[in-house]
Amino acid sequence: MTEPDVHRRPPPAAPARPRPRWGCGDIAYGILLAYAVSFVFLIALALAGIPEGSLAYTVFGALSVWIGLGGWALFCSWVKGLGRLELDFGWAFRWFDVFVGLGLALTMLLAGFGLAVAQQLIGVEEVGNAQFLENQQASGPGWTYLGLTLMVAIGAPIVEELFFRGLAFAALARRFGPGIAVAGSSLIFGSLHLQPGPLVPVLFLVTNLIMVGLVLGLSRWYFKRTGPAVFAHVFFNLTAALAILAGATG
């Protein structure tokens, strides 16, 4: 007689990973939360007598958006998802992502330069979304400009990539596929940068940011993680901040 072949039996199958409960609706919830928190902050700033355009107004305005977008993305992963940003939203990094991000940033800057040339050729004035940096550079002490530069170059890329190329991309990809995820997350990213001003110049600004979103979204799809997009966003925003400083001191 032979012993029962228990050692050759396959191990029991691992329990199936639970399906995350976040989805496309959470994109809207995060945006609405950002607007709601911003409204509360602005009311508090107005009651405190803090003028629009001041340093405190700018800082708290940015923080309110970060709380809404970044906070909701974290909530979706920790409460409605798998509990790990890497598993839910591809929030992962490799050592070479910094170099990939630098190349992506150069691509975005070249695309933006081409759009700016076309804009000048047809006689459309140029507008930007970093007026607060220009104002601070012109009238504030140097340490405040440095602080705002760190917010723009580090804080904004982390929060925006976590939401747009993290939650938004993952939700759209799971529901509609990667093509819609790249296009949809880019359109949402660009549209949320709408600002008051002349219609045509603002549309050029939004178009530029949609192109930026497309490059970042394609990176998220190709590399299956957010690391390269985060570094690309850092380099892109840092270049804009340094360009304002160079223009003022040149």
Keywords for this structure?
single chain; 250 residues; mainly alpha; 9 helices
What do these coordinates show?
There is one protein chain. The protein is mostly helical and 250 residues long. It has a domain of 164 residues. 74% of the residues lie in helices and 0% in strands. Helix 2 runs parallel beside helix 6 and helix 4 runs antiparallel to helix 8. The termini are far apart. The mean pLDDT is 89.
Short characterization:
Helices cover 74% and strands 0% of the residues.
Using DSSP, what is the number of strands?
Answer: 0
Helicity level, as a percent range? over 70%
Q: What class do helices, strands and sheet pairing give?
A: mainly alpha
Main β sheet profile: none
What is the chain-wise order of helices and strands? HHHHHHHHH
Task: Using the alpha-carbon principal axes, give the shape.
Answer: globular
Radius of gyration: 22 Å
Which regions have little confidence, pLDDT < 50, spanning 5+ residues?
none
* N-to-C span: 92 Å
Tally of helical runs: 9
Classify the beta-strand content into a percent band: under 5%
Average residue-wise pLDDT: 89
